[in-house]
Design a protein that fits this description.
It is a peripheral membrane protein. It catalyses: GTP + H2O = GDP + phosphate + H(+). The chain is elongated, with a radius of gyration of 21 Å. Strands 3-2-4-1-5-6-7-8 form an eight-stranded mixed beta sheet, sandwiched between helices. By secondary structure, the chain is of the alpha/beta class. It has twelve helices and eight strands. Bound molecules: guanosine-5'-diphosphate.
Length: 295
């Protein structure tokens, strides 16, 4: 928990300190206090729509539970924030294919390396599929992560068909009895239509070539992009069936509140958070620990 709290220290400064400021100077908890509170939530990247929902729940609670003290108000807000997150956990039932999608630069490759390391450490056999064949360096970068994590990487030449790479990774996965195949994908959003078609094709190949496998699609979002991350999530969610989110670069950003906005506006669970560039800087997301860390 200390690690999480350390990562979220700027978000906490943004939120907790301001909230304490408001509460301290309010003689009682009234509508003015709540309105000021809403502004603080919005400024901490929780977003207008999610802050609005939180506040109406909180208003109700203040009335019903006769909340008077600042401590009680803070606890009530924490409870409401925890409730925003869908309780779903990522369940890995071998064999599983994990399609990792997201815009370039959000930390997709790094996240795949961290996931590979995590699953390998848990005793699972992992194969990586370098299906971002568009960027010259992508497969190379994935290979480096594969080496670090000690897992095999299936790759083709630059410019080849991503679906063919995944096809080969699936055959390798079957032959080597892998528990998990993690597939990198391209992330060039400026050719949105092509990209979404490509992702759908990867999904179809997974279903067709490995009907026994469970298919999970993880959307990687960069917390430092704040509300932009929400816009990206909406685009991907329209095109592909997203199982959940990995929110990266939470270390050192003041925009950690965006996790609440994502869960609230998209109703998607946050499965993991990235808290650094290293192999074990990936943590399972725990809504309660998160709420305690930011408030
Ligand atoms: P991709 O283009 O989506 O595959 O992104 P990369 O995996 O190449 O990551 C882009 C940059 O973000 C790299 O410099 C990574 O080290 C960095 N990065 C990824 N995840 C995290 C994280 O959780 N925290 C921090 N601080 N940096 C990260």
């Amino acid at each position: 928990f200390e690690r999480l709290k350390q990562s979220l220290v700027k978000t906490r400064n943004q939120l907790a300190e301001k909230i304490e400021g408001i509460i301290k100077f309010s003689a009682k908890i009234d509508e003015d206090t709540l309105e000021e509170l809403e502004e603080v939530l919005i400024s901490a990247d929780i977003g207008v729509s999610a802050s609005d929902k939180l506040l109406s729940q909180l208003r109700e609670k203040v009335r019903a539970e006769k909340i008077r003290s600042p401590e009680e108000l803070k606890e009530a807000l924490k409870e409401e924030i925890i409730k925003v997150f869908p309780a779903e956990k990522l369940e890995i039932v071998p064999p599983t294919i994990i399609l990792v999608v997201g815009v370039n630069g959000v930390g997709k490759t790094t996240t795949i390396g961290k996931l590979a390391y995590r699953f390998k450490t848990q005793g699972k056999k992992v194969i990586l599929s370098a299906a971002d064949t568009f960027r010259a360096a992508a497969a190379e970068q994935l290979s480096i992560w594969g080496q670090r994590a000690g897992v095999d990487v299936v790759k083709h030449q630059e410019g080849s068909d991503p679906a063919a790479v995944l096809f080969d990774a699936i055959q390798a996965g079957k032959a080597r009895r892998a528990d998990i195949i993690i597939c990198d994908t391209a992330g060039r959003l400026h050719t949105k239509k092509n990209l979404m078609e490509e992702l759908k094709k990867l999904y179809r190949v997974s279903e067709k070539e490995y009907p026994e496998a469970k298919i999970v699609s993880l959307l990687v979002l960069d917390a430092t992009t704040g509300q932009n991350a929400i816009a990206q999530a909406k685009i991907f969610k329209e095109a592909v069936n997203i199982s959940g989110i990995v929110l990266t670069k939470l270390d050192g950003t003041a925009k950690g509140g965006v996790a609440v906005a994502i869960a609230s506006e998209l109703n998607l669970p946050v499965f993991f958070i990235g808290v650094g560039e290293g192999m074990d800087d990936l943590e399972e997301f725990d809504p309660k620990a998160f709420a305690d860390a930011i408030l």
